[in-house]
Amino acid sequence: MSRGITPRAQGVHPSTLALFARQEDPIRVGTQFDVAFDLSCPHGCEEEPVALTLQEPGGASRIMKAPLANHPAQFELTAPTEAGAHTWQFDVAPSGHDGLFHEASSMSLTVDVVPHAASVAVWALPDAVISGRPFNIKVGATSTAGRAIAGQTIIIHDIDGEEVGRTTLGDTAWPDTVGLLWAEVELRAPDQPGVATFAASLVVERLKLPHETTACTFTVPVTAAPEHCVTVTVVDATTGAPLPDTLVRIGAYRSTTGDNGMVTLHVPKGSAEVVVWKTGYDAPDCPIEIVADKAIKISATAVPEDDPDAHWKG
Question: Is the Cβ–Cβ distance between 312 and 298 less than 8 Å?
Fold first, then answer.
């Protein structure tokens, strides 16, 4: 008689194979995940190791050692590369010795396998682009499949859904990121000034790992081609001294003044506002009408040191 078995427990006993634990969702296509099973007998028998046959979703089968009774065992499974509900079948063969037998036991495990998740990013966008002219941006993507997306395609569409550019992801991650594979792509600005809207999408091709559809929308200001030069001189309102390193913006165009307090911006014709900013100073916005080259002077007033950003807080 085996240890722990009572006389009434001799004979043929049922056995139960049950799921003990499994990795939490989501289970991505083509990834490995862990499950744990427990083989038990209602009489508390300490069964000898027996064979477990695993029938995988694709039809292949393999023989493994079943878990010992009341001692859960962990197995590693691999999800198919096709999304959907997939079932694994586990069968434990009958066993017996010394007049004690255990019946066969089986169970199935169905798992919803989902595509890999991805994210697309766009950066290094210009402050503005000139209508009809080319410009460059950087695009990148991350995936729960890691670097498997290297060599995949990023396609750029305009607001009408027309393809306007594409590039191939490299195999090097952008500095200080976790797996953000990237590339540079050249686009052409629309012919009409305004705000252009684009969408960057990851297209997974030649990779047997389905991905969720993902895209990133971004906008770029489009201006008419510069026709005139506007020279701005910024001085201290009290002393008349030039103010270097002052930010000057006219519409979408911006730059900073030199040591002489001057900066020249090439801008299109039309109405615009000249905005200047320098820490510790306040200056009014200056509306101008641009019909030819022109020069203007703006006086900036020193702001008390206890509130150098008063202009922007108002």
Answer: no
